[in-house]
Amino acid sequence: MTHVRGRVWRHGKPVDDFVFSEISDCLAAEDTLVWCDIYDPDHEILTDLGDELALNAWAVEDALADAERTKAVVYKTHTFFTVYGVTVKSPAPEDMSESTLEIHRISGFVLPRGLITVRLSPHFDIDTVSRRFDELGGQEYGVGSLVHGLLDVIVDGHFDAVQALDDGIEGLEDDLFDGSARADLQRRTFQLRKDLVALRRVVLPMREVVTVIQHRRMDAKTAPELDPVYADLYDHVLRASEWTESLRDMVTTVFETNLSMQDARLNVVMKKLTGWAAIIAVPTAITGFYGQNVDYPGIDTVGGFVTSSAVIVLLVIVLFVMFRKRDWL
């Protein structure tokens, strides 16, 4: 079922007269700014809206598609973009091998006097976007301020997700070197790698989206005041991208270190087993020699038994001391 909400600003001040059926009139009015958010849109409703507002048909189809990559496309009368918001599950799942991230797709149509957002996920907090509009207080600068507010919320979510993954990797490092074997360490490492790959797919393309919107804004000449805030937003996108790339190196290092430590522990076990096997071989060799069916010095005498036992004990002690000095036991 399609859910629609919206807000209208006139002369930079909010007014409470948004009506979805009259959105064309609002967008045509001077000194008016419109934000319309559509959740779970019906194909027919969005298609009719696209025809009414002369939106590109392919862009409308992309907004309704089940999967679409992060991108921004500039058309003659509007700009279309698709971005992905990321939220961290709270509280964290008890099974740390489960994903801690939720990814939500948001598509947008940027018109000269309005922004239309299309969402397929109900879990993205759109109220945060509305509050961010009011906090920025830049509605008098036009639709560019609305787009910036939305992208600012998206990028803040990326930072929260990167921070959560960073904390998770630090937890893996602590478990890796605390000396206790964790059966789920390998599984948690793989899950973090999966989350990081998914996050990287939505964070890195944001540079292209912000660049396109920043340099090809329709209101670039009428609202130059937004240039610094878009430059700051692009800087945040770069920082999130670089942080994501560094985390990929970190989780790869943790994975490889874990394998190296497993190999090292296996080598220690094999070394100790080999040392004990060498010690056990000495009495086995001596008793095996005296088990031959031939006469030998000291046979059937107490002195022969004591001598062979003393040789066994002496050689075992010598081997034990030698292996212990070499850290083989």
Automatic annotation (TrEMBL):
Alphabetically ordered keywords of this record: Cell membrane, Membrane, Transmembrane, Transmembrane helix, Transport
UniProt GO MF annotations: cobalt ion binding; cobalt ion transmembrane transporter activity; magnesium ion binding; magnesium ion transmembrane transporter activity
Membrane topology term: Multi-pass membrane protein
Membrane-spanning intervals of the chain: 273-290, 302-323
Top-level division of the source organism's lineage: Bacteria
GO cellular component: plasma membrane
UniProt cross-references to InterPro entries, sorted A to Z: CorA_cytoplasmic_dom (IPR045861), CorA_TM1_TM2 (IPR045863), MgTranspt_CorA/ZnTranspt_ZntB (IPR002523)
Family annotation (SUPFAM superfamilies): CorA soluble domain-like (SSF143865), Magnesium transport protein CorA, transmembrane region (SSF144083)
Compartments where located: Cell membrane
PANTHER family with a match to the protein in the record: CORA FAMILY METAL ION TRANSPORTER (EUROFUNG) (PTHR46494)
Family listed: Belongs to the CorA metal ion transporter (MIT) (TC 1.A.35) family.
Protein name in the entry: Magnesium transporter
